[in-house]
TrEMBL record:
Residues 485-577 form the DYW domain. PPR repeats lie at residues 138-168, 169-203, 271-305, 306-340. The keyword Repeat applies. Belongs to the PPR family. PCMP-H subfamily. GO terms for molecular function: RNA binding; zinc ion binding. Gene3D superfamilies: Tetratricopeptide repeat domain. GO terms for biological process: RNA modification. Keywords: Repeat. It comes from Actinidia chinensis var. chinensis (Chinese soft-hair kiwi). It comes from the Eukaryota. InterPro entries: DYW_dom (IPR032867), E_motif (IPR046848), PPR_At4g14850-like_plant (IPR046960), PPR_rpt (IPR002885), TPR-like_helical_dom_sf (IPR011990). This is Pentatricopeptide repeat-containing protein.
Amino acid sequence: MAFVDVDTLLQKCTFQSLSLLHIKQLHAHLTTTGLSRFCPSRSKLLELCAAAAASYADAVLRRIPSPDTNDWNAVVRGLAHSRQPSASVTCFRVMSRAPHKPDALTCSFALKACARALAWSEATQIHSQLIRYGFEADFLLQTTLLDVYAKSGDLDNAQQVFDEMHQRDIASWNALIAGLAQGSRPNEALELFKRMKLEGWKPNEVTVLGALSACSQLGAARDGEKIWVYIRGEKLDLNVQVCNVVIDMYAKCGFVDKAYWVFENMSCCKSIVTWNTMIMALAMHGDGYRAIELFEQMGQAGVCPDDVSYLAALCGCNHAGLVEDGFRLFNSMEGCGVRANVKHYGSVVDLLGRAGRLEEAFGIVNSMPMVPDVVLWQTLLGACKTHGNVDLAEQVSRKVVEMGSNTCGDFILLSNVYAANQRWDDVGRVREAMKNRDVKKIPGFSYTEVGGVIHTFVNGDQNHSSWRDIYRKLEEVRFRIESYGYVPETNYVLHDIGQEEKENALSYHSEKLALAFGLISTREGSPIQVIKNLRICGDCHAVIKLVSKIYGREIIVRDRARFHRFKEGLCSCRDYW
DNA sequence: CTAGGGTTAG
């Protein structure tokens, strides 16, 4: 065998580039050249073994006469990257009892493993261990720790670690900003981002990823726009990931055209995520045709669609009611080497169900190769409600309850199906069941931004400082839309109360309050944006259509699933949603 | 006494 510098060669290997066979060959080679003496390759070999097969790493480690901290570290690190990251923590524990104690790096690797495994309690154990070892002042370790806490859902502890740090750098800030954004605390993420800038830090590409993700969730267009200006000034848009979140941010703030502009004018190469983000953006805005078009362009550009691309395109078909296109797309997946997952199934079931093809939808659910999840059954239940199919609704809601759903919405759907068929006894039965089961009701809320301030409303809310003006405005709206033939659609209200009370319950839905506030506090003729955490209600949809016409306003509503753009009495969803 | 640590999109 010709001379090769094994050390140099091995340093270049990644976990993915080596098979177990390769590793064994290297092992054999190293054994002949002497594994007992330390060389960088020994660590690398251990690490690669650990990443590929824990038992093999164990065997190699055993063959080393007296493994030192470096050797152990290599194994802990390798295991952290393996398919079983929890094995890394186990190894860390074994090492704690071995002659060579863990050092700061060992803790770091083991904590990374916890982050991958979302192992909160293991992380807390390592946390107390590292205090015992005296590494608590190591700020790199603190950043890792902060990140693990955030990723495993313990944002309070993440925040605390951050607060107690005596030294921070940009990565520490980034870790917490990203953590808060990904942990559904986008307000706090944005606040921290602003504080960071006040304290004189210069955001880098990682920072803006977290901050923009927060803007997307909030629909905070102004903040998002400012960050985009900063990004361009600092040329951070040379980074694809940054461009991708900008596209996503604009789309989720309602500006699909700006999203498309960024997509078209990128100064770096598009990745598959870029395409998927843009297809999803068009889908969310109900532009199914353009979503499909972009999906096809993507293929022509030589980018092979993956499961997310298909999901995005399917979603576009869903929101636009393109039943045939969606069905065709779904059926073409396999031929393109992409296996449908439960979300794809959910999507076609939704597509067929809403088009009234309930039998076909049910057939797919019953023949799909994986277990349908609750969401899928809920989708089908929604379709049953839309098309008033009582028999199927009963079957499906039984499934939903069996799967442990305890949300108000599912009961209401079934109750509505009965109500639509005047089966009041059954309506009462469902209501009894709701009382007995202590069902969870997800509180609905809506918000709108006026002059850079977010105003939030819940149903029947009287907490806003201008609530009297808001309610007065709603009276006026009511009066004016009635002359256009508006009749309240009270079957969206579940409670067994009188017609007038039902109308009142509807009248003060959070999205109507936000809309009325928008009407009284923004310039006439300017657009109004409303964001709602749940799906928009049918009555509100009808009201907002009329308002857009009578008041000459463009009203953009982002609900849980998509955008509704109301203009001149029509909605971009064409009443299909 | 080798080299090895933290933050990153759909």
